[in-house]
Amino acid sequence: MMLARPEMPRLTLEYFASLRDEAGCAQEQIESTAPSLSALYDELSQRHGFSLPATRLRVAVNAAFAPWDQSPRDGDHVVFIPPVSGG
Amino acid sequence: MMLARPEMPRLTLEYFASLRDEAGCAQEQIESTAPSLSALYDELSQRHGFSLPATRLRVAVNAAFAPWDQSPRDGDHVVFIPPVSGG
Amino acid sequence: MSAFLLTETPIDPTSFSADLRRDEAGGYCSFEGWVRNHSDGQAVLGLDYQAYPALAETEALAVLREAEARFDIVAASCIHRTGSLVIGDMAVWIGVSAAHRDAAFTACRFVIDEIKKRVPIWKRERYADGHSEWIACHEVTENS
Amino acid sequence: MSAFLLTETPIDPTSFSADLRRDEAGGYCSFEGWVRNHSDGQAVLGLDYQAYPALAETEALAVLREAEARFDIVAASCIHRTGSLVIGDMAVWIGVSAAHRDAAFTACRFVIDEIKKRVPIWKRERYADGHSEWIACHEVTENS
Lengths: 87, 87, 144, 144
Hints:
The complex is a heterotetramer, with 2 copies of chain A (about 90 residues) and 2 copies of chain C (about 140 residues). Chain A has about 90 residues and is an alpha+beta fold. Chain A is about 20% helix and about 25% strand. Chain A has a single domain, classed as Ubiquitin-like (UB roll) (Roll). Chain A has helices at about 15-25, 35-50, and strands at about 10-15, 25-30, 60, 65, 75-80. In chain A, strands 2-1-5-3-4 form a 5-stranded mixed β-sheet, with no helix packed on it. Chain C has about 140 residues and is α+β, with helices and mostly antiparallel strands. Chain C contains 3 helices and 9 strands, in the order βαβββαβββαββ. Chain C has helices spanning about 15-20, 55-70, 100-120, and strands spanning about 5, 25-35, 40, 40-50, 75-80, 85, 90-100, 120-125, 130-135. In chain C, helix 2 packs antiparallel against helix 3. Chains in contact: A-C, B-D, C-D. The interface of A and C includes residues 17, 63 and 83 of A. Strand 2 of chain C pairs antiparallel with strand 2 (about 25-35) of chain D, so a sheet runs across the interface.
């Protein structure tokens, strides 16, 4: 049950920790046709030179963890989660 | 190497918990010729009707744990230690 | 029952720990994480914490609810700092009340361990030699 | 390093816990025993604590020193109430600081367990039905 999506979904990316340092920004709006969150990370990784491989990350969409094969949708707020180190 | 002891050593007894309730006092001075702390407890037990058997107690002399076969000496401060329940 | 707070200002657990008091609670275990002056043999000047607040709150509350479900406790709460901390500052506080001490200790330990593993909060160590580094305490094994 | 206090007035751990703070300490675990409203299925109104101060101090300090010797901690302290306590009152406080949390938790648990087993302090429970009873948490196995 795929919904029709606009040609170029607008996404909000928010970065934390080393991803923020490497992206040089805490947040950005982009347009992307990446078919999955996994492909989206590859795309952003090329642009920003992220040093963490996707295998060490988790990904959250609209403040909930999401599977890597999920398709980004217009308006999504996407956060790649580096290994955490609170406490 | 027994030291000569006065005929009737004067002892200070201090009681806690159920022993205090049964003795009806927190402290008493007595004279006793009991040859051991064990015998001293038997003597006091008969007088006060202590319900705890010596096997459930420890004994301290002058604020240090002592063996039951130690002889009470004149001036000793003796405390029988019921099972503890702090915390 | 359980409460979680992310704060940019110094942690004061007073009201949170007061909320854990119940007439049926006989034991209370708390843990505090303090910024220490060393890490893996390197002299540390301080720590910077970043958090993803929306998801951190969801995950931390899930951890606290799991603790309440798994252990015989009365209540459990957690406060975590963000921002720039110096030696001695409190980075995290956890409090757990229970009828008996065994559950209080076990649940408190569970909460700090799970918070460190699962909650999207990141720590950068600032070293005496001038460099700084994001720390990865947790290796991701599942990719969901 | 370690400190023990018996007190007839409400426990305030502030200065004791402040003394556990060191630049090299990254974790702090504390335990508080509170008077709870039930015990073995009986409704409890309060507790009376008696202590043999001279020996309690010696034994408690021995426990704290053992904790410092056995575990990789920075410091450990304990405060114990005496007198008549009501529901919710703090009967005992223990605080332990360490470089890492594992030692802080383990040592804190060790201290409360040993205090309960070894230190000459006695607790009488006052029940809702009017009677009261001295509690024996510890069966003596050695007779020395």
